[in-house]
Amino acid sequence: MKKEKIGFCILHYLVKDVTINCVNSIMEKCKGENYAIVIVDNASNNNSGKELQKLYKNNNKVKVIINKTNLGFAKGNNVGFRYLKKLGCDYIV
After folding, report:
1. C-alpha torsion sign, points 74, 77, 16, 66
2. Which of 39, 53, 62, 84 is 20 to 30 A from residue 5's alpha carbon, by CA?
């Protein structure tokens, strides 16, 4: 029986520490679970999206996507949702 996969979409804008704390909390609470995290940087102009990419480049549970323009809250989240659906997530938070 296939273990269900949970996807977490984090919309990021400028505040790297808050995003890192969110990712750490998810990873701590989901130990042993089948999950994926996508961070969608909504065109932060302070390089925080690129810094997050470097931070998580070797973590196969976390993917960072950088939007070229700020798409707003809903469309930014939709970018992450579509990515997590392609990964086969059964549930997306």
Report:
1. negative
2. 53
